[in-house]
Design brief:
mainly alpha; about 95% helix; 1 helix
């Protein structure tokens, strides 16, 4: 009966590792989104400045 218990422990550990990776990816994607929004704002400001010339 120890084999299934070990298997469940391995599955639980793998699930925790996957959760950690997904959370890290989520934070990275959020930061990319923030940087993208800042880039769009900068481009729009540049466009307005060019139009004003």
């Amino acid at each position: 009966m120890s084999a299934p218990v070990t298997r469940y422990g391995q599955l639980a550990a793998a699930t925790e590792e996957q959760t950690t990776v997904v959370e890290a990816l989520n934070m990275d994607i959020h930061q990319i989104n923030v940087l993208n929004q800042q880039g769009v704002a900068n481009l729009n400001e540049t466009l307005q400045d060019c139009d004003a010339l």
